[in-house]
Amino acid sequence: MPSQTLSRHAVAILFAGFLVMFVGGGSRFAIGLVLKPMAEDLGWSRSTLGLAVALFLIVSACCMFISGKLSDRFSLRAVLGTGLVVAALGIGAMSIVTQPWQALALYGVVFAIGNGIASIAPVSVMVSRWFPGRTGLANAITTSGVGVGQLLIIASLAAALTDIGWRSVYVWLGIVNIALVPLVIFAIVRDKTDAAAPSGTPAPAQGATLGEAMRTAKFWLMVAVYAICGFQDFFVATHVVAFAQDRGVDTLFAGNLLALMGLTGVAGVIAAGLWSDRSGPGRATLFCFVLRIAIFGLILYDQSTLSVAVFALLFGTTFWLTAPLTVIFARDAFGMAHLGAISGLIVMIHHMCGGIGAYVGAALFDAQGNYDTAFWLMFALAIAATVLAAGLRRSTSS
Question: What is the C-alpha radius of gyration for the chain, rounded to an integer number of angstroms?
Fold first, then answer.
């Protein structure tokens, strides 16, 4: 990055964004770790928890759009701090659930609101203002916090799960979320309300409104690509541990697979950021779905322990690969004036479809006793997304 982006204020912005994504990512994926023991302990079906995940993703998606709009107008300190407090209350209270409606209310609504507000939408807007020349890499650094959080938080909880039980997992996640609030407030030393970009010149504010963007083919191509991406992402994140256990993988190793997906995700997202800064976001997006065709093809062909591990780790490289590219697609196509609202709406649809993917996977498992049909569906969607991503690349390159 240019030297001016390495000022104390710029580093603080990157640090704050990374921490928000670190804690948010580790918290949202923890339900995949405890899915099987929680369902067995409470006597619930997997589709019951799958419904809670689906509701979480839909509600949090709506809140990402709202937080994106709020980020265009208000202090990012207030937006992110409020989200973290609400998230801490929702995820911490999951430790006392006894009935399905409680999981729906606490995880699917309360935690979803907080996690959606303190999310990638305001973080991407914040970083885009401060690093207009290297938006891809800067967003990749903050987004990599999700993968690092998935690695460190999930690995730590997986190692302790047998001893502490699934209820204590939620207690610790609540503590981590609330502990982040003062750090974020102090780290975001300045934002839109009192600062310019690192170069001393504010990023340009020209651009299309959300309504104008929605009247273009480019916008709907982005929506279609990110809808499929979300459907696949959260199907895998929610069910990969349970799927691995069903195939005979022991609990600790299966939990560590989810954690290691975070590590490979860091590599993928940093590579995508660098790639997009050099040649735009189109090629990296196309690569993501071509790789997913191969990944889902592998697991349909063979479900041995080795193949399950390869599937999880390779999918992990693609999981957040497109995340830092959303704001670049939107900025390049529609400008900066309403970047929060436009990118927030795309992220909202991505996560809503993720909720549907998580629930569909659970419902197909409960109906058939395996995930085979779900994997065929994901394979077909990967092919469709590859075609759409090729069209999006041509559209944004023209």
Answer: 20
Q: Where are the domains of the chain?
A: 3-397
pLDDT at 385: 94
Placement of tokens 């092919």 in the chain: 383
DSSP state of 7: S
Residue 229: the pLDDT is 93
The answer for residues whose C-beta is within 8 angstroms of residue 252's C-beta and 6 or more apart is 158, 159, 162
What is the pLDDT, as a whole number, of residue 88?
95
Task: List, as one string, the DSSP characters of 42-93.
Answer: HT--HHHHHHHHHHHHHHHHHHHHHHHHHHTTS-HHHHHHHHHHHHHHHHHH
pTM of the model: 0.72
Report pLDDT for 105.
94
CB-based contact 315:261 (threshold 8 Å): yes
Asked whether 349 and 226 are in contact (CB, 8 A), the reply is yes
Residue indicated by tokens 């709020």? 70
CA distance 156 to 169: 10
**Residue 11: predicted pLDDT:** 77
Residue 354's closest CA among 50, 143, 88? 50
Burial of 292 (0-12, 13-18, 19+ CB in 10 A): buried
Q: How far apart are CA 334 and CA 206, in angstroms?
A: 9
Nearest one of 61, 183, 185, 191 to 130, comparing CA atoms: 191
Fold entry, domain 3-397 = Growth Hormone; Chain: A; (1.20.1250)
Per the listing, tokens 């779905």 go with 289
Q: Do 240 and 262 touch, CB atoms closer than 8 A?
A: no
- Phi (first) and psi of residue 207, to 5 degrees: 155, 170
Residues (pLDDT < 70) of the chain are: 1-7, 132-133, 189-206, 394-398
Partnered with residue 335 across adjacent β-strands are: 207
Cα–Cα distance list, 111 to 56, 57, 185, 265, 352 (Å) = 7, 10, 20, 24, 15
Q: Which residue has the tokens 């436009």?
A: 342
CB 392 within 8 A of CB 277: no
Residue 25 and residue 149 in contact, taking contact as beta carbons nearer than 8 Å: yes
Distance, in Å, from the CA atom of 204 to the CA atom of 38, rounded to the nearest integer, reads 49
- Backbone φ and ψ for 354, nearest 5 degrees, come out as -60, -40
